[in-house]
């Protein structure tokens, strides 16, 4: 069955959609003064599809297998996934079945599974969630100083990572953000200190005699040891202590095509801070500019990794479904240059613990629950982005044909949803954005955005916020090299609850901006059938250093040759975060009697 985005595009656009796509590709953002009468997303796709019959089956069992030539039968399984892949490479279509167990290995797909290869590979847990690819080893025989502190000698000299954002003019992480050591006691992650003494349960430090390249971080002098203060109630004689010793755990050094990962848990990767894609799961070619295809992640969990959970670059026809990205040190996942990408039924939460502790004020620089950039044909649906120590979801520049529907963005440290420097169209449909500490829905220098039948409620900042710059921002299409010159303009608000609540402070309002003018936005917006409710605030529209009432907002929008009467069907009534406006049978400018927005 077609998704709502698919049906919407097919019914409403027809030849008009082709015209929009043609104009976008030419970069004619102003469309020579012609106003389009509808906006929508081109159908992003069903994502990837892998259909196989009678694949070669290779079994893996960490507890009962043996890595030897010819292993892989159910009666004689391989012990490691890495060795099973060697057996699988002899077949055109292979299904590696991974039985319950912990696989303490790094898995790099053999070169035969490259982005232009003809082989199909499925790595599937026999039971979802029970096949764990782990970057940590179990350490035992700890010595005690009889004051509750335990220690061992430390054989590694990883030192400090290079500042990840220096090359792009970004902020610096503090010393703790440049470390990669992680320790888990009975599954609980301990908090790292740079040095002793340890005075709080649930902490540790490692001394390796290293310093960073800039001299900002001091040498950790002394004997190379690791010391830990276990959580309260821990019995060390029987505790399971795991120390992270491996970085990227699943990688595709030569890219990938026709690849499915199903039911795996990937955890405890100690990949250092970086901005080049190193992550627990890394699916892209070595040059990051190839084009892999037909890739599926299903029921995958990326958790408790030191930096990013998943990084994907330059892949088309990709699906991530029913997966979990949680408690990763920076982003839960970053997806760059996806083409025809479906992100459905996923959970992204509690990410960015390492980076936010290292740089509390720089959570807007790369750090996010999920970050998608240069997306061309992306559908996000039935997913949640909550409780991240950064924003929820960020579409960062050059995003075209985007649908975000039936999803939740809540309780994130900064914004709920951010659309930046994107030509669009972007459709935000039946989404709930609430209780974020920063702005609910934020945009900068993006055009052709539509927010429909959604609720943006009770956020710490503005319900809808316009940032970026008041002058056009140049953006290049990564596929065609066409250039766009973007301002915030040509948006639609159609049947949206924008609301503050009693918890809102001085920065909680309905519409706000950091710009000295948003005239391109106010003169091109089409807005009606909304609920603009501000708790105890008569002037909740903060526009260019002035505050407007709802009536003043109505009078100032749509004056660039549009038919008057905007917000004529809008109300101001109390709503809750659970409320979604009722669906009307027509949409925006296609509704009979609505202003047609044409010159």
Could you please describe the fold and organization of this structure?
With 599 residues, this protein is mostly beta strands. The chain has a domain at 136-245. The protein contains six helices and 49 strands. It has a 13-stranded parallel sheet with strand order 1-2-5-17-20-23-26-29-32-35-38-43-46, with helices on one face. Helix 3 (81-88) links the parallel strand 1 and strand 2 (93-98). The chain is globular. The two termini are 38 Å apart. Mean pLDDT is 87; it is low at 6-41 and 595-599.
Rg (CA only): 26 Å
Strand content: 25-35%
Topology, number of strands: 49
Tell me the major beta sheet. Answer: 13 strands, parallel
Give the CA-CA distance, first to last residue: 38 Å
Number of helices: 6
Integer average pLDDT:
87
**Contiguous uncertain segments of 5+ residues:** 6-41, 595-599
Shape: globular
The neighbouring-strand order within the major sheet is 1-2-5-17-20-23-26-29-32-35-38-43-46
In helices, the fraction of residues equals under 10%
Structural class: mainly beta
Which characteristics define this entry?
599 residues; mainly beta; 13-stranded parallel sheet; twelve-stranded parallel sheet; 6 helices; disordered C terminus
């Amino acid at each position: 069955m077609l998704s709502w985005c698919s049906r919407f595009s097919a019914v409403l656009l027809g030849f008009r959609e082709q015209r929009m796509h043609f104009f976008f590709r030419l970069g004619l953002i102003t469309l020579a003064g012609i106003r389009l009468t509808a906006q929508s997303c081109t159908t992003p796709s069903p994502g990837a599809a892998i259909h196989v019959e009678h694949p070669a089956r290779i079994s893996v069992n960490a507890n009962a297998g043996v890595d030897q030539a010819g292993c892989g039968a159910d009666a004689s399984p391989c012990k490691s996934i890495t060795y099973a892949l060697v057996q699988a490479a002899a077949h055109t279509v292979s299904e590696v079945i991974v039985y319950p167990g912990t696989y303490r290995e790094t898995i790099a797909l053999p070169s035969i599974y490259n982005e232009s290869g003809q082989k199909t590979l499925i790595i599937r847990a026999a039971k979802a969630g029970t096949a764990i690819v782990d970057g940590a080893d179990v350490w035992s025989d700890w010595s005690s100083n009889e004051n509750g502190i335990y220690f061992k000698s430390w054989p590694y000299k990883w030192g400090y990572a290079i500042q990840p954002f220096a090359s792009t003019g970004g902020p610096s992480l503090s010393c703790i953000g440049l470390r990669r050591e992680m320790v888990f006691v009975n599954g609980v992650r301990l908090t790292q200190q740079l040095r002793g003494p340890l005075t709080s349960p649930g902490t540790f430090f490692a001394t390796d005699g290293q310093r960073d390249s800039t001299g900002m971080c001091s040498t950790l002098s002394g004997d190379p040891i690791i010391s830990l203060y276990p959580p309260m109630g821990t019995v060390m004689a029987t505790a399971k202590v795991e120390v992270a010793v491996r970085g990227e755990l699943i990688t595709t050094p030569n890219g990938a095509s026709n690849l499915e990962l199903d039911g795996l848990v990937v955890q405890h990767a100690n990949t250092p801070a970086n901005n080049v894609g190193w992550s627990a799961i890394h699916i892209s070619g070595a040059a990051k500019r190839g084009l892999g295809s037909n890739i599926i992640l299903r029921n995958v969990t990326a958790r408790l990794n030191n930096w990013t959970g998943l990084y994907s670059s330059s892949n088309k026809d990709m699906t991530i479904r029913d997966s979990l990205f949680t408690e990763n040190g920076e982003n839960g996942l970053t997806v760059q240059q996806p083409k025809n990408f479906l992100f459905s039924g996923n959970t992204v939460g509690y990410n960015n613990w390492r980076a936010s502790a290292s740089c509390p004020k720089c959570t807007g620089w790369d750090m996010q629950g999920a970050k998608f950039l240069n997306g061309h044909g992306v559908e996000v649906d039935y997913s949640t982005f909550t409780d991240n120590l950064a924003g929820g979801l960020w579409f960062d520049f050059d995003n075209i044909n985007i649908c975000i529907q039936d999803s939740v963005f809540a309780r994130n440290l900064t914004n709920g949803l951010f659309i930046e420097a994107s030509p669009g169209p972007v459709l935000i449909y039946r989404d709930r954005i609430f209780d974020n500490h920063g702005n609910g829905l934020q945009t900068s220098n993006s055009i052709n955005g539509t927010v429909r039948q959604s609720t943006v409620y009770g956020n710490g900042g503005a319900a809808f916020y316009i940032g970026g710059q008041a002058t056009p921002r140049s953006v290049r299409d990564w596929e065609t090299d066409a250039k766009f010159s973007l301002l915030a303009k040509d948006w639609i608000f159609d049947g949206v609850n924008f609301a503050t609540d009693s918890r809102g402070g001085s920065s909680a309002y309905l519409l706000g901006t950091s710009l000295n003018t948003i005239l391109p936005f106010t003169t091109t917006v089409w807005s009606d059938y909304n609920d603009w409710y501000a708790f105890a605030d008569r002037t909740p529209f903060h526009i260019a250093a002035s505050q407007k009432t709802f009536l003043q907002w109505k009078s100032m929008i749509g004056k660039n040759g549009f038919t008057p009467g905007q917000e004529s069907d809008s109300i101001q009534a109390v709503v809750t975060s659970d409320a979604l406006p009722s669906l009307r049978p027509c949409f925006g400018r296609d509704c009979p009697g609505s202003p047609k927005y044409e010159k």
